[in-house]
Specification:
Blueprint lengths: L4 E5 L6 H11 L6 E6 L4 H12 L2 E8 L2 E7 L2
Parallel strand pairs: 1-2
Antiparallel strand pairs: 2-4, 3-4
Length: 75
Amino acid sequence: MNSDKVLDAKGMACPLPIVRTKKSIDGLQSGQVLEVHATDKGAKNDLAAWAKSTGHELLSATEENGVYKFWIKKA
């Protein structure tokens, strides 16, 4: 999946992946996609809930070798 920006949040514990995601997505224009890489297991539920509560769209979420990848489209 294509993204306009990639955020490396690997090794960060909650709430840092969410804080960094918010900062990164604020720098994008509406319709652009942020790709987030995280190793915190809680990020899966946290990012899905955050995207829903802020109006952004979680396009996809995958897990590979302990790295969770999320694609979030800015509202």
